[in-house]
Amino acid sequence: MAKVTFLEESCKGCGLCVDACPKHILQLSREKLNKKGHSPVEMTDQEKCIGCAFCATMCPDCIITVER
After folding, report:
1. pTM of the entire predicted model
2. Cα(23)–Cα(37) distance, rounded to whole angstroms?
3. CA 47, CA 37: separation in Å to the nearest integer?
4. Which of 4, 15, 28, 58 has its CB 3.0 to 4.6 Å from that of 39, i.e. a possible disulfide?
């Protein structure tokens, strides 16, 4: 199973990773804001992650790390 980590404080909440996820398990937080005032991305179900790294590839700020 893949391990995905996000640098939440650097996330600008653009949503490109959310759109790229084939399993639809990423979302922008509805409850948190980072220090920049953006809703950071979060994973809804780590168990369903297939480790494709589409999210990391799409992120313009390189805040996503996928480890297999």
Report:
1. 0.92
2. 27
3. 29
4. 28
Place of tokens 């992120």: 59
Instruction: Please write the tens of the pLDDT for every residue from 2-57.
Output: 999 999 999 999 999 999 999 999 999 999 999 999 999 999 999 999 999 999 99
Structure tokens at 12: 């600008």
Architecture in CATH for domain 3-67: 2-Layer Sandwich (3.30)
Going through the chain in order, the beta strands assigned E by DSSP cover 3-6, 26-28, 41-43, 64-67
Q: Where are the alpha helices (DSSP H) in 1-68?
A: 16-20, 54-58
With bands split at pLDDT 50, 70 and 90, how would you rate the model's confidence at 68?
A: confident
Q: Could you give the CA distance from residue 53 to residue 34 in angstroms, rounded to a whole number?
A: 23
